[in-house]
Design a protein that fits this description.
Layout (H helix, E strand, L loop, with lengths): L7 E8 L5 E8 L2 H10 L3 E7 L13 H16 L4 H10 L4 H15 L4 H6 L7 H13 L2 H56 L7 H37 L1 H13 L3 H22 L4 H10 L4 H15 L4 H8 L4 H13 L2 H56 L1
Antiparallel strand pairs: 1-2, 1-3
Helix pairs in contact: 2-3, 2-7, 3-4, 6-7, 7-8, 7-10, 7-15, 8-9, 8-15, 9-10, 10-11, 10-15, 11-12, 12-13, 13-14, 14-15
């Protein structure tokens, strides 16, 4: 696959084949290459200047959701009969994110200069993975690019919806936990010491619970900076270790499948992703072995990625897909039965699509249930945490009042 080459955006003006003055923007490695690209498009350039970057640029990165929207817009334009290059122009005009607009303009220029869409997309592997490029290449080869773009858009949309649903479910508890930690730290560092000064004038022994909280407060006052640095360092080390260590990443994937409730959601999400990816690639006419290769890369869990690679190897030796999937022992019976029916009837992509829909809905329902369950639990924990600190502080005052 071609590697991504850094390009600059140039503002140009020139004369087209009909003698009309025109202008626009083009992405290229240099002004000379920009002029060459314009000439291949039938434009005689007059001025080509590097576009100045804004002083305060948002610099927002391109997200998978942006690629999903772009793919859907491009598919819609092509289904309406708009030529590919013109479709790029229309889509680019409606984009608000500068980096995404530059990406679309750059791809458009490559396509306009005679390059195929799939090779042009392959120059940006961070945004367009092997699966995306192979599906587009299949569409170009079969002359059904608009249909294939629609399928890719559906695949990307379903995948992002599934991710967004899970992230949304985790956002609320994460935010509450962070708030609880911050509030507790403030109480221990700022509020509890004030009570401790008051307790010293009582001249009597404090309750054990209060002594525990005061001791914890003293510890936090002395070591809060070290604790904060330790937490940040631990988070950074965890992220780096997960990214760099294959064994640690695999351990986390196995652990995620064993966590009660959460493990079931992860399992269903992986099955949904497996079914959706395999259905999309198989419907595009990609050979089953190649489709399984792409599916393994999109599984999202190393345990299932290894299982899919094993399925691919078994299929290569002549084993049916049903037998190969069943041999892993990881996939549910519903998937197995639908695969068996699909192989016998020749409608494997339709059967897998139905399985994907079923498990996507199962994940949605499970996530909603988990969110409803976690909300009262988190609020209870937060109430016990903050309420416990307040009780520890007021307990000596209550005891003093009973003595009086």
């Amino acid at each position: 696959m071609a590697t991504s080459v850094a390009k600059n955006v140039f503002v140009w003006s020139g004369v087209d084949r009909n003698g009309r003055t025109t202008q626009g923007e083009i992405a290229a490695q240099s002004s000379a290459m920009a002029k060459a690209q314009l000439r291949t498009q039938g434009i005689k350039p007059k001025t080509v200047k590097k576009k100045a970057k804004p002083l305060f640029s948002s610099g927002k990165p391109i997200k998978p959701a942006d690629i999903a929207i772009f793919t859907r817009q491009l598919a819609t334009m092509m289904k309406a009969g708009v030529p590919l290059v013109q479709s790029f122009d229309i889509v680019a005009e409606g984009l608000e994110k500068p980096k995404m607009r530059e990406l679309v303009v750059s791809i458009k220029n490559d396509v306009a200069s005679g390059s195929g869409l799939a090779p042009s997309l392959a120059k940006y592997p961070r945004q367009f993975d092997d699966l995306f490029c192979s599906l587009v290449a299949s569409g170009e080869a079969s002359g059904t690019l608009e249909v294939m773009l629609g399928r890719v858009a559906t695949y990307k949309e379903k995948t992002e919806q599934l991710k967004a649903k899970i992230k949304k479910a985790m956002t609320y508890p994460t935010a509450v936990v962070i708030v609880a930690i911050v509030v507790t730290a403030i109480l221990l560092i700022k509020v509890v010491p004030q009570f401790a000064e008051t307790f010293r004038s009582f001249g009597s022994d404090l309750p054990a619970f209060t002594l525990l909280v005061v001791g914890l407060s003293n510890f936090m006052q002395d070591w809060w900076f070290i604790i904060l640095l330790g937490m940040l360092a631990t988070g950074f080390a965890f992220k780096e270790f997960k990214h760099r260590s294959v064994k640690f990443s695999e351990f986390l994937d196995r652990l995620a499948l064993r966590i009660p409730i959460v493990g079931g959601i992860v399992h269903d999400a992986v099955v949904a992703r497996f079914s959706r990816t395999l259905a999309t690639t198989f419907a595009a006419g990609v050979p089953l072995v190649d489709a399984l290769n792409s599916t393994a890369g999109a599984a999202g869990n190393s345990v299932y990625s290894k299982a899919i690679i094993q399925i691919r190897d078994d299929v290569t030796t002549g084993t049916t897909l049903y037998q190969a999937v069943k041999a892993t022992g990881l996939f549910p019976n519903m998937l197995l039965q639908m695969v068996s029916i699909g192989e016998e009837s020749g409608a494997l992509d339709d059967m897998l699509d139905k399985v994907a829909q079923h498990y996507e809905e199962a994940v949605d329902n499970a996530v909603d249930s988990l969110s409803s369950l976690m909300e009262p639990i988190i609020m209870s924990v937060l109430g016990v945490l903050v309420g416990g600190l307040m009780i520890a502080m007021y307990l000596p005052i209550f005891m003093l009042g009973s003595v009086i």
